[in-house]
Write a structure and sequence with these properties.
By secondary structure, this protein is an alpha+beta fold. It has four domains: about 20-175, no CATH class; about 200-240 and about 265-420, no CATH class; about 460-500 and about 605-685, no CATH class; about 505-600, no CATH class. It has a ten-stranded mixed beta sheet. Helix 17 (about 405-410) links the parallel strand 15 (about 395-400) and strand 16.
């Protein structure tokens, strides 16, 4: 195989073909392969065993023939076997492509019970199109190759087998001679026909002198096409798949293949890092080309995709020795889950399971695909709260939405389990779109605020099956209106701070409406130089990106922005930031404004113990008048709750609307008031 076709340059690390896999290949030296019409059926596999797949040699258009061999897991340790582990995106299409699979008997050599093995019976097996394309590309004409491929080596219809095989994946990828990353076939964008393959452009990106020259002096339409093609490559589905985090983190060596091109993973990650580091300059140059008028969105979603996170994962998740053995896990489960929030999986349980083997802390729940998704999610939130003493996890949006199977089982996602579809920056295109909104609670272990002071979380979790009333007007006890569902409840102690009395319109696509400005203290008839101090601080939640308090010069940037509002008093921050004449420091300020107000509202609330005292801030987009603002012990920011008691006479319960910023109440001030706020145990569902 030519692993470096088109990529042999002084800048690239040569990727050598492995030695022939002599340990297992002799088993496939069979003179005949028999085929039957019955579909392939798996043989049962033990807890201490794995399957490896032999991809039988063949030409490009030959039928894909494979054989599976069951081996003790210990045979993989220490790279005793020369096999590759495939990393790829499953895709949404059904398994419609037929390959042929047979079983290699467990005996050594080519004999079974003393008889010479001269045939292997193969049966049809159906795989998804992207895997089928990978098998055809990876196959070579003159040797059989050994792979571990999850969709084939694990019986995906057997939940029990999946539960004991998936925890072995970290070891499987660690011990693989190579992790082969299959990005899929190349799908040229319109207006890019005839341009070179984007993997060919890697040699330019990693040549520091050449990269500097083409982004300063030699920029032309051909260069724009090359950057657009590389940006398109980074939007491939592989960069959004949750399981790849484990696969690339565990790899000792890896290759990247797209279509007929293959390069070294190290070269590819360097190219991605250098490309992203120059992205703002590249965007500016690209916007001045003819191609940008034909493909205006080519660079739009690059930064918000998964490429940066995956590149960082190879350095920041595991520490390995020179032999590739994992010696330390560097991140807690909460950090992993909330870091890779935009990565998807076909099974919502894999929100947790796909990253479990990488975590530095111990999660008491082993993978079990028979457990309800809701029970797994609730156990994760409880784990985070107990291990950290913080309730901030309920303000983060980390969970994949429940699939139809979970919904059919009667699972109701409680409001304190945040799904990625509810992210502050999630638009109509879903969470994979622009990332202009930030969480107020910041990263785990790095508190930005301390609204509840040093108080640790005081809470109880319940997971239960119960009867829920789905008919609000029915009388208690009318069983016809009840249904058995899976529920998770959180009881948390805290302070009732204030009630919401007014909200602004929602900030949509970065446009701050005038009613929002007016609500927090600016009137157009008043000189902008007379805006109150709290006004400009609320717009940025009184913090810089690193968590430090907002600098006083941001007031000047705020005044500059207010002088540029439209005739209605609205400020389109997105359009404003697109102007080439905008001062750089104002751009920095506006980026922070966007991160705080994107898809949120401004609000006014009144304190329960000081009804004439007004508080202002930023709240979730679903906040309504009469919602209450609370400070839960262990939560670093205030939250908005809504009374959701279904029937008068039932125990009072609440729905979590989300986190909020309340100016003057973000650093423990509520706990220091002379007149104590009422302490409440909130039953949140």
């Amino acid at each position: 195989m030519d692993w470096n076709r088109g990529h042999i340059t002084p800048e690239l690390i040569p990727f050598q073909n492995p030695s022939p896999p002599t340990i297992l290949s002799s088993v496939l030296s069979h003179p005949q392969v028999l085929r039957t019409g019955e579909e392939y059926a798996y043989s049962r596999i033990g807890y201490d065993q794995v399957r490896l797949l032999a991809l039988v040699q063949g030409k490009r258009d030959d039928p894909v023939i494979c054989s599976l061999k069951i081996l003790p897991i210990g045979r993989l340790e220490g790279s005793q076997l020369v096999y590759q582990a495939l990393s790829y995106a499953w895709g949404q299409e059904p398994a419609s492509e037929q390959i042929l699979i047979g079983d290699i008997p467990p005996q050594n050599g080519n004999t079974v019970d003393g008889e010479e093995l001269d045939t292997i019976v193969t049966r049809p097996f159906f795989v998804r199109p992207n895997l089928f394309a990978a098998l055809k590309r990876l196959r070579v004409e003159k040797e059989d190759l050994w792979f571990w491929i999850d969709a084939i080596c694990i019986n995906q219809d057997d939940d029990a087998e999946k539960s004991h095989q998936l925890p072995k994946m970290l070891g499987i990828y660690c011990n693989a001679w190579n992790v082969c990353i299959w990005l899929g076939e190349l799908e040229p964008l319109e207006h890019l026909e005839g341009n070179s393959h984007p993997l060919d452009f890697v040699s330019t990106l990693v040549n520091l002198k050449l990269l500097d020259r083409i982004t300063v002096e030699d920029w032309d339409e051909s260069t724009a096409r090359s950057f657009a093609a590389f940006a398109q490559l980074l939007s491939k589905p592989w960069f959004r798949r949750r399981w790849v985090i484990q696969e690339v983190s565990a790899s000792t060596r890896a290759s990247v293949q797209c279509g007929d091109r293959k390069i070294n993973w190290i070269d590819f990650t360097d190219a991605v890092h250098l490309f992203l580091s120059q992205l703002e300059k590249i965007k500016t140059l690209y916007d001045g080309t003819r191609l940008s008028r034909q493909l205006p969105d080519a660079m739009t979603h690059v930064e918000s995709g998964g490429a940066r996170a995956i590149v960082q994962a190879t350095r920041n998740v595991l520490r390995k020795d020179e032999s590739g053995k994992v010696v330390r896990r560097l991140r807690s489960l909460e950090v992993l889950i909330t870091t890779f929030v935009l990565f998807d999986a076909s099974n919502p349980r894999d929100t947790i399971y796909a990253l479990l083997s990488l975590a530095s802390d111990t999660f008491s729940m082993e993978p079990d695909y028979k457990k309800p998704v809701l029970q797994i999610y609730a156990a994760f939130v409880e784990h985070c709260t107990i291990s950290s003493g913080s309730l901030d996890i309920i303000c983060r949006h980390w969970a994949l939405a429940l699939n139809q199977d979970s919904l059919a089982q009667g699972s109701l996602v409680p409001s304190w389990i945040g799904t990625v579809t509810e992210l502050p920056f999630a638009g109509s295109s879903g969470p994979g779109g622009r990332q202009n909104g930030d969480s107020l609670v910041g990263d785990p272990g790095k508190r930005v605020y301390s609204a509840s002071g040093d108080r640790r979380a005081t809470c109880r979790f319940q997971y239960l099956h119960s009867l829920i009333d789905f008919a609000p007007l029915s009388m208690p006890g009318d069983e016809s209106s009840f249904r058995l569902v899976n529920q998770a409840r959180l009881s948390a102690r805290g302070l009732s701070l204030a009630s919401v009395v007014r909200t602004s319109l929602q900030v949509v696509d970065g446009t701050i409406p005038y009613d929002g400005f007016e609500l927090i203290g600016w009137e157009r008839k008043v000189d902008v130089n007379q805006i109150p101090d709290h006004f400009w601080r609320i717009l940025v939640a009184d913090r810089e990106d690193d968590g430090s308090r907002a600098p006083s010069w941001w007031r000047r940037a705020c005044l500059y922005c207010l002088s540029k509002t439209n005739r209605y008093g609205d400020l389109n921050t997105t359009k404003f930031m697109g102007g080439s004449s905008l001062p750089g420091m104002v751009r920095t300020y506006l980026k922070r404004v966007q991160a705080m107000v994107w898809n949120r509202k401004f609000f006014e609330c009144r304190m329960s113990i000081f009804p004439y005292r007004k508080l202002y801030g930023i709240c979730p987009r679903d906040t309504q008048v009469s919602d209450i603002v609370c400070i839960l012990y262990g939560c670093s920011v205030p939250v908005v709750l809504r009374n959701s008691t279904p029937v008068v006479g039932f125990k009072e319960s609440f729905e979590l609307i989300g986190e909020c910023y309340v100016h003057g109440m973000m650093d423990g001030e509520a706990l220091e008031l002379d007149q104590s706020l009422p302490e409440v145990e909130f039953d949140i569902r």
